[in-house]
Amino acid sequence: MGTRLLTGRDLEWADLEQEKLVTLIDEKLARKAWPGEEALGKRLRIEVWSTRNGPIELEPLWTEVVGIVENVRSSGLDRDDAETIYLPYYLYAVSELSLLVRSEADPALLTEEIRESMIGIDPDLAVFNFRVMDDWIAESVSARRFSVTLLSAFGISGLSLALVGIYGVLASSVSVRRRELGVRLALGAAPSEVLRMVMSRGAVLIGAGLALGLVAASLLSRFLSSQLYGIGPTDGLVYSGVAVLTVAVGLGACLPARARRRESIQ
């Protein structure tokens, strides 16, 4: 599975041969059971279904912690699992096992080979429910992915409408001031000063609106944290991208002032 062993050792065949009851635990359990202490070598009492005494029953066992591994998410990528204990299968009785096969080849092509190998070991084994890990992961986040895709579509639509509105309002305000700009130029104002005045006014409006929008977005985005995985609700790349796009569209809307300046000169 690629789970990293942090300290200690892995389970070994010698443990089975010597009938040693050993176990691996994850970081979460090590911190919870022995906070501030070394977990290696500690004894852990667990109850497992066992047939060692005849009929299947819950048997309390004292096992020795021989290794600590990193925390993993086995129930789903979008939620944390409880504390995890890793035991050799020989310690307890089970009626169903999951076999995981790691291969450099296409796993979808190994189904029949794995089935034949298992039946070769025991013809009475029922081998079923073959699944590729990528499909398993995709299914575990499918509902969350749909929600995020839907929210992203609404977000892009809202951003597009906002940019159209910003461009329209600023372009209209420049167009309304056409006569004023012409008068300023006629009275001796330099064209560059007129353009700078219009751009400065637009930049102030854009900056004020952008500041309010970013503050509101950072507060409201916390309600989306339950729908996110791997990123926080205040992703810097998204915020900076929206800010740059808004500034570019807003300042672009002020460029008609340059055309008005040319018309006045002509």
Number of strands: 5
Q: What is the total domain count?
A: 3
What kind of sheet is the major sheet?
Answer: 5 strands, mixed
Mean pLDDT across all amino acids: 80
**Contiguous runs where pLDDT drops below 50 for at least 5 residues:** 259-266
Oligomer: single chain
Radius of gyration: 33 Å
Number of helices: 9
Strand content: 5-15%
Helicity, as a percent range: 40-55%
Produce the secondary structure layout:
Blueprint: E1 5-8, H1 13-17, E2 22-26, H2 27-33, E3 43-50, E4 57-69, E5 85-86, H3 111-121, H4 133-140, H5 142-176, H6 178-186, H7 191-220, H8 236-253, H9 256-265
Parallel strand pairs: 2-4
Antiparallel strand pairs: 1-4, 2-5, 3-4
Q: What can you tell me about this protein's structure?
A:
This protein has 266 residues and is of the alpha+beta class. It folds into three domains: 5-95, no CATH class; 103-140, no CATH class; 142-265, no CATH class. The protein is built from nine helices and five strands, in the order E-H-E-H-E-E-E-H-H-H-H-H-H-H. Strand 3 and strand 4 form a beta hairpin. The protein is elongated, with a radius of gyration of 33 Å. The termini are far apart.
